[in-house]
Amino acid sequence: MRSKKLSSILGLVITFVSFVANAQNDVSLWLTKADKSVLFTKQKRILKFAGIKNNNPTIVVDEKESFQSIDGFGYALTGGSAQHLIKMSPKARAALLKELFATDGNNIGVSYIRLTIGASDLNEKVFSYNDLAEGETDLEQTKFELGPDRIDVIPVMKEILSINPNIKIMGSPWSPPLWMKTSYDARGGMLKPEFYEAYAKYFVRYIQDMGKEGIHIDAVTIQNEPLHPGNNPSLLMVAPDQAIFIKNNLGPAFQKAGLKTKIIIYDHNADRPDYPITILNDPDARKYIDGSAFHLYGGEIEALTDVHNAYPDKNIYFTEQMVIEDPNENRINILSPIKRLIIGATRNWSRNVLEWNLAADPENKPFTDRGGCPMCQGAVTIDEDKVTRNLAYYSIAHASKFVRPGSLRIASSEPKELSNVAFKTPDGKKVLIIANSGKNAQTFNISFNGKLLSDTIGNGDVATYIW
Fold this sequence. Notes:
It is built from eleven helices and 21 strands. With 467 residues, the chain is an alpha/beta fold. The chain folds into two domains: 97 residues, Golgi alpha-mannosidase II (Immunoglobulin-like), CATH 2.60.40.1180; 331 residues, TIM Barrel (Alpha-Beta Barrel). The strands form three sheets. Strands 1, 2, 3, 4, 16, 17, 18, 19, 20 and 21 form a ten-stranded mixed β-sheet that branches. Strand 6, helix 4 and strand 7 form a beta-alpha-beta unit. Helix 5 packs across helix 6, helix 6 packs across helix 7 and helix 10 packs across helix 11. The chain is globular, with a radius of gyration of 24 Å. Belongs to the glycosyl hydrolase 30 family. It comes from Pedobacter panaciterrae. One of its GO terms (molecular function) is hydrolase activity. This is Glycoside hydrolase family 30 beta sandwich domain-containing protein.
């Protein structure tokens, strides 16, 4: 009798072990097809690492070789984005924010947000948190007030935090208050040296006042696009000035205030890696700096690796790229942002990928006059309570839902026309994102721990595999 019982228990154990082993071999697939027939949809078929050797191109994934940790994927929450969200009905807004920031079901799990410190060019009008008449000054920031952001950005951000309390938040200014500039104009100009100290206190007040609202600012960049003074608002800030501001004013101000917020430099295109390297060459500035941030409106994404190689102890971030599409086209160019940004930036040491921006209306409004962006499409288009999902939505979703904060990029080979990047998540899952840049459908293998999986994806298609 005892022998029979033991045999039965042993059989159950063997069945359970076999079930677990098979489950570990199961691979789920989320797909976006360039012809729009499938848009970030989980496929019903279950794939397995059970293939036999063949002559197909093979992506070898190796978790023994790892690179940078990942902080997250997401968007800029501009004042314009928040303006549209706050005008939605509470029910519709709650549903959209859950879809964007929750990770269960078909929600896409956005894990990183970039806020604008004051107005960006995607606000209805220009403002700072300390606007004064020309000739007036406020060196101690006694008149600092988050004012306009209390109407939309702060309440929306609180709703987001109720869904994901651990979301990473970065702040970036487009311009200091006008009274601090060489010209009393939102466009261009430079920061007057006599106001460096006052501007450092402005950053401190922003972080402290947002903290009082329950919004923890994890990082700040010093200036959005410091070499593009034609935007509205904007500021010209050359590398030597940024270094002086950090080492003499901002770094010491953060230290004095006990702030742990990261200081990130540059925040502009990949065509000028010399800008962050110049600043990092200054040891007195470098000690306060966490890393460098990039956009890709110019230059090559590989420049991020050049900066990493120059200072491998400093982090790399990808903080902005406009991603747009014509909704009337019968194809979606998902290949471009996935290959250039999601794959390109992370394979070149970036800890995050942020696209520009979260939301706009059907006319891409609002944007400022004299230099705002009339073509900046949101990841979602909001028309009262109606929501349309755009290219930026799907491109971020392929990474944000699965590559959770704390994931590690791991090694993966790149066969011709099969751009890809691989990650290991905190719970041990592997995520492989693939973009087929060839002219035809491609059948290929994924090799992991000596086992093969074979699959086919169409030209221009993007697939995320999870096991």
